[in-house]
Please model this.
Amino acid sequence: FSFKKETNLPLVCAIVIDVSSSQEFTFTDEKRAALAFLQSVLKTRKDTAALVRFREDVDFVQGLTNRLDRVNEAFNRLNWESKISSGSRYGATALFDAIGITATELFPPISAPDSPETITRRAIILLTDGDDNASDRTLQDAIDDAHRSDVIVYALGVGDRYRSTAVKRDVLETLASQTGGHAYFPESFDDLRAAFGQINQEMRSQYLLAYEPSNSTRDGSFRSIEIELPGRKDVRVFHRRGYFAPRGTTGARASGAPTGTP
Model:
């Protein structure tokens, strides 16, 4: 019942950075590229951003704020540290918990459709090699948390010294594609900076497709979405793979936000 192109929507964005031992030699580049993204792309008072770091625990360095100077200051304080707290396991990484906790605590589920005046684009920009050896959550749990919070995940797979063999591509591609985002695998600082530019382009310009499901049962179950463009083999569609139906007694409409790219 509705199809329109959305451009320049306000962004609500969490930068989630892996600071485990595997990121020691690429952390400085990741920090530079992410900081440049914040400074050149996000707009003060219109967009909102947060900074999250994780090893085996998740740390909200800066919560969501439209005071981007505060996010910049938090980035300037952020460093990779070789020292870890007593009792911690060196090299432990809780990637799935980081995604799940960020999605649920920074992006509360939307209980009712936003009005045109308040609709925003929610996104997690993840910098990691994709390894997880310390989470209580599974990969599917993290994806489900993102779906419930209407969050798109963009993953930048950065391995030790940009080695592609050190990156869990399948994990990051699944996490991104299931939530409607992309996974990028930069092999240099220039690649990393270009990936941030592509993420900006995608987040700022997407298509909103709204429809009324044939199944109006409000049972909280997961409903899959599949979008096809017959006759357009030159176009790929990236979209969230589904949503969780609300719970209650009356029917409801649902929507997906695919991005069409030639």
Notes: The chain has six helices and 13 strands.
